[in-house]
Design a protein that fits this description.
362 residues; Rossmann fold; six-stranded mixed β-sheet; five-stranded parallel β-sheet; 17 helices; binds iron/sulfur cluster
């Protein structure tokens, strides 16, 4: 599956689906880890076309969704500080903190700007030497290299008015935590292919062997997901706990070595709180001591902000694959993309937003 036309070809999809139906002999619970995969599944109706024995549950792979409330409140506190230009990807602006979001802070006078990369924030720092430019550095292993490179470049140029508020999360520790939970029902994983492009597959092999679970690194197009599912069902039906690579057009077993080196140079692994889930050991990155001048949480002393999650929102259970969005009493009524209660509704990758878009309540 190497060429563009194949990724959504209905004929290819039908052939893979027929093979999945032929091979499936008993019930299986499968988690797609990535929010982009969730959207592709719900948008293309893959969950409706699978054998009834296969249950798909949605995983924690939406970076906006798992960014803790504290980080949003810290971002708002920094953005409201005098002389700050606060930079963020657009989808973070509407994510609710404990009382407001960054968009509201902007309407109250804070200089909050949408950027498309940390390098754009760096450019703002060069152009505005009298301002402190802060970039909200969130995401999984895919965003960490760019965020690390921005700090390396800022140090090279001697830019003293650039820093990052960091909430970087790591997928394999989250999978280990989900598998260790007594409530876990998941028997196989579609891992996020773009994350594996950076990390490679070694950690996934360790999980597959130690936790006795098959994993397939899978792309984000509809036929990628169907092919990943077919490979996973083959492993499950054969009782093989291995790692396969459906996304071989991008994933190399060792990952992207220069990107990994940049991340290791700037960041170190720490325990990290995930929104709705709680603190997971070794599941996050923080800026190393050598680069602490670029750590906005230290520069603006906002590290101590702590807040509680809204009680009504069950996004934590959704992110762990224990509930689906339509099991939430607020779904589609008190919680909509226009007035979201939780991050899984506001984020374009969130499972609640996917259900709202493609599976509205009747
Ligand atoms: S529908 Fe809204 S309140 Fe319910 S789980 Fe999703 S984000 Fe939370």
């Amino acid at each position: 599956m190497k060429y563009l036309s194949e990724y959504r070809d209905p004929q290819v999809a039908r052939q893979i689906l027929a093979e999945i139906h032929r091979l499936t002999t008993r019930p299986w619970v499968v988690m797609e880890v990535c929010g982009g995969q969730t959207h592709a599944i719900v948008r293309s109706g893959i969950d409706q076309l699978l054998p009834k024995e296969i249950t798909l549950v949605h995983g924690p792979g939406c970076p906006v969704c798992v960014t803790p409330l504290e980080t949003i409140d810290q971002a708002i506190a920094i953005a409201a500080s005098p002389g700050v230009i606060f930079c963020s990807f657009g989808d973070m602006l509407r994510v609710p903190g404990s009382s407001r979001d960054l968009l509201t802070a902007r309407s109250a006078g804070a200089d909050v700007r949408i950027v498309y990369s940390p390098l754009e924030a760096l450019q703002l720092a060069r152009e505005n030497p009298a301002s402190q430019v802060v970039f909200l550095a969130i995401g999984f292993e895919t965003t960490a290299p760019g965020n690390a490179m921005a700090i390396i470049q800022a140090e090279r140029e001697g830019l003293e008015n650039f820093s990052e508020l960091v909430c970087q999360v790591l997928v394999p520790p989250a999978l280990r935590a989900l598998l260790a939970s007594p409530a876990n029902l998941v028997q196989g994983y579609l891992a996020a292919g773009h994350v594996c492009t950076i990390t490679g597959l070694d950690e996934y092999w360790e999980i597959a062997r130690s936790q006795r679970v098959p994993i397939v690194a899978t792309g984000l197009e509809a036929n990628d997901i169907l092919e990943g599912l077919l490979m996973l069902i083959e492993l499950l039906e054969a009782g093989r706990c291995e790692v396969l690579n459906q996304y071989s057009r991008s994933v190399r077993p060792g990952g992207n070595l220069p990107a990994r080196a940049a991340v290791n140079k700037v960041f170190e692994v720490v325990d990290q709180k995930w929104r709705g889930i709680g603190e997971l050991p070794g599941s996050g990155l923080k800026i190393r001591q050598e680069y602490q001048n670029f750590d906005a949480a230290q520069r603006f002393a906002v590290g101590k902000i702590k807040v509680a999650e809204p009680v009504e929102c069950i996004s934590g259970l959704i992110l762990q694959g224990l509930k689906r969005p339509d099991a939430c009493g607020a779904f589609g009524s008190r919680c909509t993309p226009e007035k979201p209660l939780g991050a899984t509704m506001v984020s374009s990758e969130g499972a609640c937003a996917a259900y709202y878009l493609y599976k509205p309540l009747n």
